[in-house]
Amino acid sequence: MPTEFDKAKENAPVHVAIIMDGNGRWAKERGKPRIYGHNEGAKRIREVLSAAKKVGVKFLTLYAFSSENWSRPPDEVAALMKLLVSSIEKYGRELVENRVKFTAIGEVSALPPECEKAVRDLEEKTREFSEGTLALALNYGSRAEAAKAARLLAQKAARGEIDPSAIDWDMFSSGLDTAGMPDPDLIIRTSGEQRLSNFLTLQAAYSELYFTDVYWPDFGEEEFFKAVSEFKRRERRYGKTADQL
Ligand code: IPE
Ligand code: IPE
Ligand code: MG
Fold first, then answer.
1. Position in ligand 2 atom list of the atom nearest CA 216
2. Phi-psi region of 18 (alpha: psi -120 to 50; beta: other; left: phi over 0)
3. How far is the CA of 22 from the centre of ligand 3 (A)?
């Protein structure tokens, strides 16, 4: 059972990002096809979003499809794209009712047209909301994101709009998909893998990392609270000594 410490809003992470991994293995253990695991996994998002709100998290970013996931079998990719559209249809209204802002990071324009449309429509409907932000990483990869940010700056420099010697992190990061969002305080990865898999690698410079063996379809409110309380026990030093804090 989560304690009061786990649930208290004090010192809660402002931005939590999650690598929702293990759907395939979860399904395999049950003798089901991988897509069954993805469908079950999608159902957890609602519960985790509500848990995040309870503990005072303002931004929740979920890794749903990486720029490398296109290399999966075509029927799995197609099923994931279908699941994206049906999930937006199913849960989009709830986000609107709860005044949660929905946003996507990644190359959304390279998704199938019906996916792009569903994403853009929900972004549009929730644009003005401020009761928390749900960001979905779709066709997202940090390296592609960084290359795009560099391209933007190079184009501006070529037009004479900026001085290349003035480029610093603030200017560079304003070209990232996460511009306007704080860096993640806590990154959670489920399923026992301990890597970032091209997810927010630049934004993760000072993120606390939390790994759990639990597969994503089994990750619920209690597991989320556990991760948050572990985060609260960590000491973030940003290069300083412990005495300076
Ligand atoms: C994560 O679960 C969901 C996506 C990457 C879309 P996986 O599909 O990677 O599940 P495993 O890692 O094969 O168990
Ligand atoms: C990362 O999981 C991407 C998502 C969770 C959407 P993967 O399952 O694709 O990562 P790797 O291939 O095991 O590193
Ligand atoms: Mg995986």
1. 5
2. beta
3. 5
**21 CA distance to ligand 2 middle (Å):** 6
Determine the pLDDT at residue 95.
97
Evaluated on CA atoms 39, 181, 53, 201, the torsion sign reads positive
Predicted local distance difference test score (pLDDT) of residue 103: 98
Cβ of 69 closer than 6 Å to ligand 2, yes or no, is: yes
| Element spanning 64, H or E | strand 59-66
Q: Which residues of the chain have pLDDT under 70?
A: 1-7
The pTM of this model reads 0.96
Find the 86 Cα to ligand 1 centroid distance in Å.
Answer: 19
Left if phi > 0, otherwise alpha if psi is -120 to 50, otherwise beta: which for 103?
A: beta
* Structure confidence at residue 106 (pLDDT): 98
From the list 6, 21, 177, 185, the catalytic residue is: 21
Q: Yes or no: say if 59 and 14 are a contact pair by the CB < 8 Å rule.
A: yes
